[in-house]
Amino acid sequence: EEKHSLSFVEQLVEEDLAAGKNGGRIQTRFPPEPNGYLHIGHAKAICMDFGVAENYGGVCNLRFDDTNPSKENTEYVENILNDIKWLGFKWGHIYYASDYFDKLWDFAIWMIKNGNAYVDEQTSEQIAQQKGTPTEPGTPSPYRDRPVEENLRLFNQMNTPEAVEGSMVLRAKLDMANPNMHFRDPIMYRIIQTPHHRTGTKWHCYPMYDFAHGQSDYFEGVTHSICTLEFVPHRPLYNKFIDFLKEMDGTAKDGLDDNRPRQIEFNRLNLTYTVMSKRKLHTLVDEHLVNGWDDPRMPTLCGMRRRGYSPESIRNFIRSIGYTKFDALNDVALLEAAVRDDLNKRATRVSAVLDPVKLVITNYPDGKSEEMTAINNPEDETAGTHTITFTKNLWIERADFMEDAPKKFFRMTPGKEVRLKNAYIVKCTGCTKDANGNITEIQAEYDPESRSGMPGANRRVKGTLHWVSADNCMKAEVREYDRLFNVENPSADDRDFRELLNPDSLKIHENCYVENYLSSVKPGQYLQFQRIGYFMMDPDSTAEHLVFNKTVGLKDSWNK
Ligand code: ATP
Ligand code: MG
Ligand code: MG
């Protein structure tokens, strides 16, 4: 892998190491909420969390932030694990925030007993109204000063099957005038009666993010808790709850103030022409605006995998955009360039004709066939070769023929020579049309001395065309994808994001022909359809009906 300059995150980590913090130990975590599939934004966080651990001899654990049972399930857990493995990372432990529900409960009880938490029976609307503004203090809840015993009784009541969702919350008693809004008596627990995918019906109230995340980091011994910029204003509260925890466990004054996770924030990944909010991705799937989470148009890792992106190209892209303190919108063309770059090195070159028209080599013997050698990858000698069958009847691309061609048309036109890749030089002699003037067949004569590898093949011919033998090929469906959205930044648009979808984001070519070699490939194998682009077999493919996804074209066709 290429050397790269340190990001500001790694610089901070190195400062901590130099200062002797945590005894030189490095421990990070990637904390997905199992309420959806991972997308390329998550990949940016994964590369950082795992990258820091790898670079400094530490460990990165996974922690499922499963504190909201109403949106989470094990299907998401399984897929998240699979996607992280696919990206090429190895975790230490797998933890769940739900492993800490007992500890967090005890901590909450301690907070109540110390007069630092209270049960509020107001509605969430009332609580929101009392928050105040950053410049005006909030209004204290009428329940703020209720006695400890009453708080303990009500908090226990919150954790019963009878508790009504929304009827009570536990709040930290902090500072209703603090300029940081997160200090204005943040909610610690709320009632949720949906069974949890791991703890079942043991719990009826669950900790909020702010009362679970930092504490979980602390319990696990995380040294650097790396997250995205929207958590900057949460950081003082993150630290405050850890202060309380250290007070509770008696390590508050341990001199070095060691054993304390440090939260560091970087900019989220936003990509042009897509959305990354899980709520919106859920909508796309639930309303069948795409064909599932792994639709190749989705920004999900499973979608990109199905489309044919390599994990290496995603990691290279993330390295190239880097980590900063400013949110930005990254051009998806950069990702596609990274995909092209990587696939060029690993894709097997094959022949496929997406919009076929018949080409007959009139002077080639009927019934004859020859096995031609096709190099699998000119970028990689070790990739070897395969054979492709040449016969009298071929398919070529309709766009590769013009009856009256301009001078610069170096493809097939009557009277001119072109090379058929890996085969012969042929000279077009004419074409046949139907009653409507559509071309139904093209004729050419081949030069028997010009077979690839023979001296006669060295003659200068401007154009080289790809082809497939009509007598030795398979039919295939090819799915071609365009931008999922018509606008660069759908998230910044006032209109409903559904109205911004590109209605032509999926184009299906039903009548393609591919060389027989493709019957032996599998989804997961990187392919280049020569002169067209990079492709991957789709899992919908069967022996009778081959299906391929276009990963990306050979050249960027959007920024011409
Ligand atoms: P949403 O807010 O859409 O529900 P999320 O960010 O809450 O998504 P999580 O599963 O909680 O999703 O995210 C796990 C980790 O991935 C978090 O640390 C989060 O900061 C990080 N992450 C999520 N989206 C991005 C992104 N677009 N760029 C970088 N990191 C991201
Ligand atoms: Mg989250
Ligand atoms: Mg979120």
TrEMBL record:
Any Pfam family matching the protein: tRNA-synt_1c
Residue span of region Disordered: 124-145
Boundaries of every Glutamyl/glutaminyl-tRNA synthetase class Ib anti-codon binding domain copy: 347-447
Domain Glutamyl/glutaminyl-tRNA synthetase class Ib catalytic, chain residue ranges per copy: 26-344
Broad EC category: ligase
Gene Ontology biological process terms in this record: glutaminyl-tRNA aminoacylation
Biased composition (Polar residues): 124-138
Entry EC no(s): 6.1.1.18
Protein name: Glutamine--tRNA ligase
